[in-house]
C-alpha cells in the first residue's frame, strides 16, 4: 500500500463539534482479513486571524483516539495548524467486526501517515511539520521516520515530539525475553488471541466518571483499555527490537515523560502523579536510539499522557514543549 493508492473523502463535521472536521482515508483490504481498512484524519480548522507557519501531525497510542482539544488550541496559538490521525482499527477509524488496534506489523501504518502528510501539504503548502506522538504512537512514528529517511524522504517533517513513548515491554528482563519469544511463536498461528492482562488505574485518573477531568468517549477509549492481542504485541516487540538496534529519524527529537512510575491495580493519589502504564526508566534508557539530536525532559508528577496530567505538571509539560519548539524555530512563540 502506498499513499498514492489511498482514497480520501471530503472533510465533514467531526464528533468534537464546531471547529473540528474529519476526513476518511480509505486504505483497501486488510491483510489480516478484517474487511477494509480506513484511517481518519481530524483537523482543527484555522480560525479567523490565525496565521499558519507550520503544522503538527498528532498520533495517538493504544486504546486511544484524538480528543485533546486543549493541546490543539495551544499549538494553534503558536501558528501551527493541527491535524491528528486515528490509525486503522483505532478510534473513529475502527469498523464493525474489526479487532481494536490490531495489526500484525507496525509498518502497515506507514502509508496512512504518508497520506496524512500529503493532506497537510494540500491544506497548508510547504510548511514544516512536527510529528507529535503518544505511547505506542511514540514507537510507530520513529520507525516510520527512520524508514522515510532511508528512502530519502525526510521532508516535510522537521521535528519529532514524543509523549511517554513505549520503547520497551514493562516487567523484569527475566520475564520479557520468554514472553517475547512466545509472541513470536504464537503470533503467526493465533494473532487474534487476547491476552489476560491485569487492569490498571490509568483510565480512572483521566475520565470524569473516575477521578479525572476529561469526558471523552468510552466506546473509543475504554476505562480498562481494549484487549491486547498476540499478533499486535508481536508486532510491537519487533518494533522494540528494531528501535533498540538504533534508528536515525533524521530530525531533532523531544521526549517528554514522567519522573516516576507507579504500577498498581488500586487507585490512590499516587496514581495521579506518576506514569501508571509504562516504566519511565525504560523510556530514559532507550531515548538515545532515536538518532540525531534528542532532548529528554522528565516532568515531575506527570501522568502517562503528560498533557493530561494534573494542572502543575501539565503546565510544565507545555512549557517544555514550547521551549523545544522555540529552540528549533518551529512555530512562533505565543503572544
From TrEMBL:
It comes from the Bacteria. The keyword Iron does not apply. Residues 52-259 form the Serine aminopeptidase S33 domain. One of its GO terms (molecular function) is hydrolase activity. Pfam families: Hydrolase_4. SUPFAM superfamilies: alpha/beta-Hydrolases. The keyword Hydrolase applies. This is Alpha-beta hydrolase superfamily lysophospholipase.
Amino acid at each position: 500500500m502506498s499513499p498514492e493508492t489511498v482514497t480520501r473523502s471530503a472533510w465533514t463535521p467531526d464528533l468534537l463539534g464546531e471547529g473540528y472536521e474529519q476526513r476518511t482515508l480509505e486504505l483497501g483490504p486488510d491483510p489480516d482479513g478484517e474487511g477494509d481498512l480506513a484511517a481518519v484524519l481530524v483537523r482543527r480548522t484555522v480560525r479567523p486571524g490565525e496565521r499558519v507557519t507550520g503544522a503538527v501531525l498528532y498520533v495517538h497510542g493504544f486504546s486511544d483516539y484524538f480528543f485533546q482539544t486543549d493541546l490543539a488550541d495551544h499549538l494553534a496559538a503558536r501558528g501551527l495548524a493541527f491535524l491528528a490521525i486515528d490509525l486503522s482499527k483505532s478510534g473513529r477509524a475502527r469498523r464493525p467486526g474489526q479487532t481494536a488496534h490490531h495489526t500484525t506489523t507496525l509498518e502497515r501504518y506507514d502509508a496512512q501517515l504518508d497520506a496524512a502528510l500529503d493532506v497537510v501539504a494540500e491544506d497548508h503548502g510547504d510548511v514544516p511539520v512536527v510529528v507529535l506522538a503518544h505511547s505506542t504512537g511514540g514507537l510507530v512514528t520513529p520507525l516510520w521516520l527512520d524508514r522515510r529517511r532511508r528512502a530519502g524522504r525526510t521532508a516535510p517533517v522537521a521535528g519529532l515530539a514524543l509523549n511517554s513513548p513505549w520503547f520497551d515491554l514493562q516487567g523484569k528482563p527475566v520475564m520479557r525475553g520468554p514472553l517475547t519469544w512466545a509472541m513470536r511463536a504464537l503470533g503467526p498461528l493465533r494473532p487474534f488471541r487476547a491476552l489476560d492482562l491485569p487492569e490498571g488505574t490509568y483510565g480512572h485518573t483521566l475520565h470524569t466518571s473516575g477521578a479525572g477531568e476529561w469526558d471523552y468517549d468510552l466506546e473509543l477509549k475504554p476505562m480498562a483499555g481494549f484487549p491486547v492481542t498476540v499478533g499486535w504485541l508481536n508486532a510491537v516487540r519487533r518494533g522494540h527490537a528494531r528501535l533498540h538496534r538504533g534508528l536515525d529519524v533524521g530530525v531533532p527529537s523531544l521526549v517528554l515523560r514522567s519522573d516516576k512510575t507507579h504500577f498498581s491495580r488500586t487507585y490512590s493519589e499516587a496514581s495521579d502523579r506518576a506514569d501508571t502504564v509504562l516504566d519511565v526508566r525504560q523510556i530514559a534508557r532507550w531515548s538515545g536510539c532515536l538518532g540525531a539530536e534528542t532532548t529528554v525532559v522528565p516532568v515531575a508528577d506527570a501522568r502517562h499522557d503528560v498533557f493530561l496530567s494534573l494542572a502543575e505538571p501539565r503546565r510544565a509539560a507545555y512549557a517544555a514543549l514550547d521551549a523545544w519548539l522555540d529552540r528549533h524555530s518551529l512555530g512562533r512563540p505565543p503572544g
